[in-house]
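does this look right to u?? adenosine-5'-triphosphate version
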Amino acid sequence: MASTAFASTTRQQGEPKIITASKQMKDLFAYASRVAVSDAKVLITGESGVGKDIIARYIHAHSLRRTREYVAVNCAGVAESLLESELFGHVKGSFTGAHRDKLGKLQLANGGTLFLDELGEMSPRMQGVLLRFLENGEIHPVGSDMTSSNVNVRVIAATNRNLPEMVTAGQFREDLLYRVRVIHLHVPALRDRREDIKPLAIHFLNHSGKDIALTDEAWAVLERHRWPGNVRELQNVMEQISSVATDDVAVDVAQLPHILKSTGQAVLPARERRRQLADELFQAIVEGGYSFWEHLHPMFLDRDITRHDVREVVRRGLSVSRGNYRGLLDLFRIPANDYKRFMNFLATHDCRPDFREFRNPTTKMDRRPVVKFPGLRPTRPVEQPDTDVPEGESENAAL
Ligand SMILES: Nc1ncnc2c1ncn2[C@@H]1O[C@H](COP(=O)(O)OP(=O)(O)OP(=O)(O)O)[C@@H](O)[C@H]1O
Ligand SMILES: [Mg+2]
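got this back:
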């Protein structure tokens, strides 16, 4: 890497442009290029948005397999049976809709690299299937009773979950963890490598095509922020800033998204502070590109916000969806197939207000919040909830 204040790697075909200024990230990339040349399996961990994907692609681009395929599979959000077919392929007629034989991603990645993203979301059965493949390299397409082939694939996996904790909780196979974690790269959160914030921000601003400057005070706010959504959040914020900035006037604190300025405010009474925090969090989700799992959830796990705050955000959401929990999915940017996980999370942490309170249209919170982020993306319309099925009740039954 170059020795300038921040270095970007030279881009080979398909290689992402990577900005590193902190010692942690320079060391991490130096280690990644050393291990890239071997065929050892790599596990990349770190919070959401820290750059796990980009590191996986970097490893492939620096490996001897770089001229072969790099194939990514996301283990979350795909039904178990589809994931198996996605990885191993299927034979014609093996399930409804299987009109012809189909190769799996493992076969497509033969000679190259398979990136298994969100490994921690894999179901126990699929963990067993994957382990069997890692042990013998054999491919069993779905619906076939024969082993079709052996493939030569380098596996890189990533997760933002704590796999050893999941092993202890009986949710992840210990033998699979050992198999995939031959090399372990942990990507630090952005708040733990603050030297990267400004170079990354400049990199994202440069994409706008405008000549944008920020005042020293605005930079100080960016560098102080906790960045729960890490580099992805920074990227969103810089896009928001560039959409409102003009070439000739430096962006000052006043033009920054409100969520960035909420730290270090004047001390308010506790109740008022809480109400304001819930309003800001809700607004950041609805207007600021935050999402429940990527932003609120890590803040909650890090104890930056309490269950009370989460409950209050949910209440604001329910007031918009008129008590329809399913209506929160779109609002909070939660994938539709994560509904059960979302409801379980709320139940486990006692963050599930009674939906009936919000079915009454005269409820006090029955309004969308006032938009405090000028110039951000317009609010997406929220689907009208079905009013005749008490959604919350059927949800209770499903748990
Ligand atoms: N060092 C970096 N230099 C340039 N861009 C980066 C860097 N790190 C992350 N990014 C960018 O930030 C965004 C998020 O990174 P990435 O998708 O790799 O995160 P992730 O850890 O895989 O997130 P998730 O856990 O949500 O899958 C991407 O657009 C990526 O290109
Ligand atoms: Mg990723």
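The chain has a mean pLDDT of 82. idk if thats expected tbh
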